[in-house]
User: Fold this.
Amino acid sequence: MTWSVLFLVLLGALLHASWNALVKSSTDKTLDTALIHVLCSILALPVCLYVGPPSPESWPYILGSLVVHVGYYFALAGAYKHGDLGLTYPLMRGTAPMLVAIASFALIGEALSVLAWMGVACICGGVLLLGFTTAWWSHRKAIVFALSNAVLIAIYTVIDA
Assistant:
């Protein structure tokens, strides 16, 4: 991996975590989530005009991803409304990759090697440990929203792939 690619990946991670922190700290999480995405859409429009529209074969996947993302934003707002960022974010992001790996195997026969499964388990486990505290189970509503969102993340990951 080149340094420029590594920089872009880390920048993407920073931007992603930053907008999640902005949503968590806002008083109207649903409205602020919508405003952030409207702004991002406006910023992306020139790029779309430059590269041209997607091929017609991709439109069903784009529409499916759009529908799933709407649910994702509502679940995200609910998770942040009922729980701390330090609990909900790791739960959503630590569970989703395991769900993708399991669903990919079950639905399309994507077989991972034992080493790859161990890698997925270690990464997911490490992310989940970031949010684990002794008071974890006292935030049941936040956990339900976060796990629902993890399922939606897994679904849009498969659709987008």
Q: What stands out?
A: The CA atoms of residues 11 and 107 lie 33 Å apart. The helical segments are 3-25, 29-51, 59-82, 85-108, 114-131, 140-160. The chain has a mean pLDDT of 89. The longest helix spans residues 59-82.
